[in-house]
Design a protein that fits this description.
single chain, alpha+beta, Translation Initiation Factor IF3, about 30% strand, globular
């Protein structure tokens, strides 16, 4: 399982390291990505849905987490 916490990133969009992690992960790898930027979180969910990748959403205050397995 690979995890990525993008909370607090201000230099660039948290989608950049999230997509890098997804692209570099082999099929079957479980990924956990935590964000605190709602727009990026929605964009990532939309991407996963378009790719047919099921995911689990977890909300904890300002932090939002996606758990999924790479296809």
């Amino acid at each position: 399982m690979k995890t990525l916490d993008t909370c607090g990133m201000t230099n660039y969009s948290p989608l950049i390291p999230a997509m890098k992690l997804i692209c570099e992960s082999p099929p079957g790898e479980e990924i956990v990505i935590t964000m605190n930027q709602g727009e990026a979180f929605r964009d990532l969910k939309e991407y996963l849905a378009e790719e047919g990748i099921g995911f689990r959403e977890i909300y904890d205050g300002e932090e939002m987490t996606l758990q999924f397995t790479v296809k």
